[in-house]
Amino acid sequence: MTRKSRGAVRRPAETPAPSAASASAASPAKRRHLWLAVGVAVLLAIAGIGVVVTRPVALPSPAAASVPAPASYVGANSCQTCHQSEFAAWTGSHHQLAMQEATDSSVLGDFANVEFTHRGVESRFFKSPDGQFMVRTDGPDGKLADYPISYTFGVYPLQQYLIAFPGGRYQVLPIAWDSRPGSEGGQRWFHLYPDQKLDHKDPLHWTGIYQNWALQCAECHSTNLRKAYDAPSNSYQTTFSEINVACESCHGPASAHLSWASKAKAPYAAHDDKGLLSLKSGGSGAWHFPDREAKFAVRDQPADPAGMNSCGACHSRRATLSEARQAGAPLSDSHRLAMLTAPNYYPDGQQREEVYVWGSFLQSKMHQRGVSCMDCHEPHSQKLRAEGNALCTRCHQASEFDAPKHHRHQDGGKGAQCVTCHMPSQNYMVVHARPDHSLRIPRPDLSTALGSPNACTQCHADKQPAWAAAAMDGWYGKTWRDRPHYGFTLHAGETQGVRALPSLLELASSTAQPAIVRATALTLAQPYAGPATLPAARALLLDSDPLVRSAALGMLERTDPMNRALSASPLLLDPVRGVRIEAARILADVPDSQLPAGRQAAREAALQEYVAALEQEADWPAVNVNLGNLRLRQGRFDAAIAAFQRAIVLDKSFTGGYVNLADAWRQQGRESEAEEVLRAGLAVLPDAADLHHVLGLLLTRKGESGAALKEFVEAVRLAPDNARYAYVQAIALHSAGKREAALAVLRDANKRHANDLEILSALISISRETGDQRAALRYARQAAEILPNDQNVEQLVRELEGR
pLDDT, tens digit, for every residue of 212-227? Predict the structure, then answer.
């Protein structure tokens, strides 16, 4: 399972919870996901051992005592008296069973001395004489050992198991129980990494850093969770109020509501403050058909976004900014949502990696038209409000859409089901089929152009996209192919370099497009931002959506300090934490004297929020690199180096730790320390192209050009699609007097990276040097196509043309 958010904790149910370390940013060479079972249809989801109990236990908290919270957690049982129907619906739901103590009633797997073999490791599931559920499998030293099961994780379609380790950790066993019926292939043990062999030295081994419950998945399986990671001791004292996803996970702490309920008498005033945020969205009665001829239902009034915001906090792929999440608050106030970029998404925004549903749903026309999560899902039971097409025809006229004239398939068959075409599923965690909630119209033509899947050939697996497109031509004519789609622009942003910049900015500025699409366009444009894009970025800093504002701030990162200060400093006071943090990050190195009057204090406050977010997530190697980069921007070199070193200690296979640490030493002129770091990294990661490339740059600075060239060649061999590495190799060859070899590398790179200006610049320069004016002119014209209004390029073309 991919990374999720982390919750909050307060009395009366502040109990020591299981600890575990997270897995968000494994090394680039190993972007594999920690698979953790979740029960609901698509749940978004080193000393001493922490123990979780379900009873409220007050823990001493001097900080909390000095600043009393306005409300505290009271537990689901306190809600039952007044909300019996909701409590009954929740009981037995996947939320209620999200995490449980391992007992005879909660464990679904077969522990009757069952053996399971994977990649040469023979594991055995059994019960000890005293009834404890046990597994014998390979441990952190690679040797077989017996481990007691502490907790179950999820219930359907699979169940996973947590095992206690020192330091308050709970590690997630990679062998899961398939809880589907036997007729569907279930009732068996299976491995979540069936095609990989992960030995005990691999950080993705079940005993390693990236299979740690608290680091990766705890926040969304328990209520009011505080990770409480202590960096100096590298240990956890994780707490939660309730072991599962209970009432207050969504509604927030309810003590004030309980107080109100003890005094209030019916009838209740409509505007009475009941001490708890309402998450109602209208549910099944929110929509109606305005007349008998209407194709679509309409909503009487927009749903309050608070309800969906509560869902998005866990049902999304994101990084955590703060555990102090307010119920119903925008996701950007507590988390950073993943954009629609590779490898998480296909170019047209369809789910690819395990991204859960929020990023998909935000793209949908359903979301844009006011549909909420609770219109389709009953929030307490998590069941659909209707089965099959009956769910869709609550808002889409059945006579128009639940008919062969629309779906073009045989009635009653799989092809006649709305979700088959509009929400195609993909399996995650091997057996967990999850529908794509972008609810899109099938576009087999995009499969040909962008390489994305389509619902047609997912069912008709023996056919090609062209076959499906031809069938649609027969049904609708060919005009459907002309419908614009943002996937073309996003794909260009990932493949065409700076050439895509104008279309990315145009997409980002289109308020008709979903905010997540616009923010993704800005994210892809950021590497090519400069003075010319400053007006567009400034305009988007005023956008109503925090995703767009945050991405627009990223467009300013390479701008001079004065323009950065003038443009970004107002957002230090943004109402959304994620925006404030991003503004503080890009302004971290701007001198106080260049900030507008009165903004110094705002920057300091936002920087404190940013540092708090980084320290809270300091069990992630990548977060330590982010902290190191912040300290570098602030000129705090010792702190930066300590952060980079800590990233490596946490994960010796994390390439980014070595690269950033070496660069920090370089900035201080300490090349010997930088070289030592890089060679230590290569001893662990001999196939890391980044390390070979950076070592080549270091050797070049030392004057060891021959040795440097060998490193550049190796970097290109290991990462042939990296245009920068090919460019640097060519320059090194040219410097060594191997001009023809350099040209050969550049020509080959230009074929694969036709829009890379560095490669074109080198081709023009070396071609002119050899007297090949015709080739130089050809490459200059190619550059002019990429930068059609650049005066310097136009002047170069005229010069080469002899004008």
Answer: 999 999 999 999 999 9
